[in-house]
Automatic annotation (TrEMBL):
Segments forming domain Glucosamine/galactosamine-6-phosphate isomerase: 11-211
Any single biological process term in GO: carbohydrate metabolic process
Gene Ontology molecular function, alphabetical: 6-phosphogluconolactonase activity
Pathway: Carbohydrate degradation; pentose phosphate pathway; D-ribulose 5-phosphate from D-glucose 6-phosphate (oxidative stage): step 2/3
Protein name listed in UniProt: 6-phosphogluconolactonase
Top-level enzyme category: hydrolase
Functional summary from the UniProt entry: Hydrolysis of 6-phosphogluconolactone to 6-phosphogluconate.
Family from the record: Belongs to the glucosamine/galactosamine-6-phosphate isomerase family. 6-phosphogluconolactonase subfamily.
Taxonomic source organism: Leptospira fluminis
Lineage, uppermost ranks: Bacteria, Pseudomonadati, Spirochaetota, Spirochaetia, Leptospirales
Entry keywords, A to Z: Hydrolase
Pfam families named among the record's database cross-references: Glucosamine_iso
Gene: pgl
Length: 224
C-alpha cells in the first residue's frame, strides 16, 4: 500500500490541497478513460472541500458522483449526506441528474442496499474515494464491532441496521467495494481527530485501516 500523509495548520490549505489532488486525478481519468468516478463523503469536514471544488475548471459532464454511505432518512432530509453534497457542490455544477448516484436510503437499508448494488455495476473501479474517519476509527458507516464487508464474498453494499450513532439504520459501501478505488483519500480535521489519525497512520486495526486504494492511499489532516 502506497500511503502518504499530509498535515496542515489551517483549513484553507487543507481544502486547497485536496481540491488540487482531486482535479489532478480527474484530468487523468477523463483523458485516459473518458470519465471520472468519485465517491463523496458526508460529515462536516468535506464541506469546505466541496465549496472550493465547484470552482475548478474541468469537463463536468464527464464526472460521475457516488456516495460512500447514507443515513436512512427521507429524501432531501437535512441530515442526509447527499443533501449536504448537493447544497455545497452539486447544485452549483453543470451536471445532469443522471451523473449523480445518490443512495436511495429513504427506501430503508435492505431495499436501498439492493438497488445501489445494481447502480454500481456501471462503475467497476472508482477513481477517487473520499472518506472521513471517526474518533472510534469508523469510516463511511462501517463501525468497530459491526459488519465491515471485508471478506472475499462480501456484497458491494451493506444494509446497516444497528449503527452505534443515530440513525441506527444506514446504507454503506463495503470495505471490499471501497478498496476498488484507484485512490482513497481520508479527510480529518480538528484536535479531536489527531489521535485517531496517528493510529491510522501506524496501521492499527480499525475499520478505516482496512481500506486502501489500488494505487494510492492518502491521509489529509488539518489541525484546526
Amino acid at each position: 500500500m502506497n500511503l502518504r500523509f499530509f498535515n496542515f495548520s489551517d483549513r484553507v490549505k487543507f481544502s486547497e490541497s485536496i481540491v488540487a489532488r482531486i482535479s489532478f486525478f480527474a484530468e487523468i481519468s477523463i483523458r485516459e478513460r473518458g470519465a471520472f468516478h468519485i465517491v463523496l463523503a458526508g460529515g462536516e469536514t468535506p464541506k469546505s472541500v466541496y465549496s472550493r471544488l465547484r470552482e475548478i475548471r474541468t469537463s463536468w459532464p464527464d464526472w460521475r458522483f457516488w456516495f460512500g454511505d447514507e443515513r436512512c432518512l427521507p429524501k432531501g432530509g437535512t441530515d442526509r449526506n447527499d443533501t449536504m453534497a448537493r447544497r455545497s457542490l452539486l447544485d452549483f455544477l453543470p451536471v445532469a441528474e443522471s451523473q449523480i448516484y445518490s443512495i436511495p436510503a429513504e427506501l430503508g437499508p435492505i431495499s436501498a442496499s439492493k438497488e445501489y448494488s445494481v447502480f454500481l455495476k456501471s462503475a467497476s473501479i472508482f477513481d477517487v474515494s473520499l472518506l472521513g474517519i471517526g474518533e472510534d476509527g469508523h469510516t463511511a458507516s462501517l463501525f468497530p464491532g459491526r459488519e465491515l464487508g471485508d471478506s472475499p464474498n462480501s456484497p458491494d453494499v451493506l444494509a446497516v441496521l444497528d449503527a452505534p450513532k443515530p440513525p441506527a439504520e444506514r446504507v454503506s459501501l463495503s470495505s471490499n467495494r471501497l478498496k476498488h478505488s484507484r485512490c482513497v483519500m481520508f479527510l480529518a480535521a480538528g484536535g479531536t481527530k489527531k489521535e485517531i489519525v496517528e493510529r491510522l497512520k501506524m496501521g492499527e486495526e480499525m475499520p478505516a485501516s482496512g481500506i486502501f486504494g489500488l494505487e494510492n492511499t492518502e491521509i489529509y489532516y488539518s489541525e484546526i
